[in-house]
């Protein structure tokens, strides 16, 4: 009984931590004209997570909140991709290929994934293009968030696998073409065409520990 009580107390503290973090991130977003709801009242998605998963989410959101604060404190906009993405690489301890920033504009979506398919970073442009709350984005797996052609998903996975297993060692333009993407659990059900412009390895201790995806979005509509 004492163990269960401790877990319940920890869970409640994590709920409060998540709400505070999400509110602060959304306040930072609002200063740049992006108004995003931090969570749904009652935390219906976050509340269902295990204590371990809640801790992981809070850690991830803490990382992003601190990253945003550092960006703003140094006088940069959150939508300034070159500085914001570079800060993310430094904070994650990841080393990009030297040519990555040649492909990057402020209009690009940028995502960083680990080898076990955990999303380590998404840039400000990502949040401009989606309508999910922070709770939904951080609590739900991506396949509960977006719908796309399964063949397109498999093609992307195949290229990413080749990066992680060393078959692809350079920055790689996959040439997959744009594919249709739809939010499936948001209130607005936003739709768009997304195209991966570049997939590139990120190193730590000379080993590929993560990948960065640079993407463009076209035809954004609700």
Summarize this entry quickly.
The chain is an alpha+beta fold and 222 residues long.
Report what the structure shows.
The chain is an alpha+beta fold and 222 residues long. The chain has one domain: Beta-Lactamase (2-Layer Sandwich), CATH 3.30.450.20. It is 41% helix and 22% strand. The chain has 6 helices and 7 strands. It has helices spanning 2-30, 51-73, 81-92, 124-129, 134-139, 150-164; strands at residues 95-96, 109-114, 119-122, 146-147, 179-183, 191-204, 207-221. Strands 1, 2, 3, 4, 5, 6 and 7 form a 7-stranded antiparallel sheet that branches. Strand 6 (191-204) and strand 7 (207-221) form a beta hairpin. Helix 1 (2-30) runs parallel beside helix 2 (51-73) and helix 2 crosses helix 3. The longest helix has 29 residues, at 2-30.
Helix and strand content put the structural class at alpha+beta
Q: What's the total number of strands? A: 7
Q: Could you tell me the radius of gyration in angstroms?
A: 18 Å
Q: Give the number of domains.
A: 1
Query: Helix coverage percent of residues?
Result: 40-55%
* Proportion of beta-strand residues: 15-25%
Q: What is the CATH class designation? A: Alpha Beta
Poorly predicted spans? none
Order of helices and strands: HHHEEEHHEHEEE
CATH topology: Beta-Lactamase
CATH superfamily, by name, is PAS domain
Largest sheet: 7 strands, antiparallel
- The CATH architecture comes to 2-Layer Sandwich
Work out the helix count: 6
Taking the alpha carbons of the first and last residues, their distance comes to: 48 Å
pLDDT average, as an integer? 94
Shape verdict: globular
């Amino acid at each position: 009984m004492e163990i269960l009580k401790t877990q319940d107390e920890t869970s409640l503290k994590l709920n409060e931590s998540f709400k505070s973090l999400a509110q602060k991130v959304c306040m930072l977003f609002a200063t740049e004209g992006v108004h995003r709801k931090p969570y749904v009242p009652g935390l219906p998605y976050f509340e269902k997570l295990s204590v371990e998963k809640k801790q992981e989410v809070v850690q991830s959101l803490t990382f992003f909140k601190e990253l945003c604060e550092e960006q703003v404190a140094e006088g940069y906009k959150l939508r300034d991709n070159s500085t914001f993405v570079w800060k993310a690489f430094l904070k994650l301890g990841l080393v990009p290929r030297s040519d990555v920033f040649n492909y990057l504009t402020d209009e690009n979506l940028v995502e960083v994934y680990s080898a076990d398919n955990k999303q380590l970073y998404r840039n400000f442009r990502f949040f401009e293009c989606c309508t999910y709350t922070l709770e939904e984005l951080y609590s739900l797996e991506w396949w509960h968030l977006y719908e796309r052609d399964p063949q397109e998903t498999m093609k992307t996975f195949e290229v990413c696998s080749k990066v992680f297993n060393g078959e692809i060692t350079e920055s790689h333009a996959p040439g997959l073409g744009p594919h249709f993407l739809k939010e499936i659990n948001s209130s607005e059900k936003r739709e768009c065409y997304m195209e991966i412009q570049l997939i590139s390895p990120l190193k730590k201790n000379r080993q590929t520990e993560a990948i960065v995806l640079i993407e463009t979005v076209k035809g954004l509509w609700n």
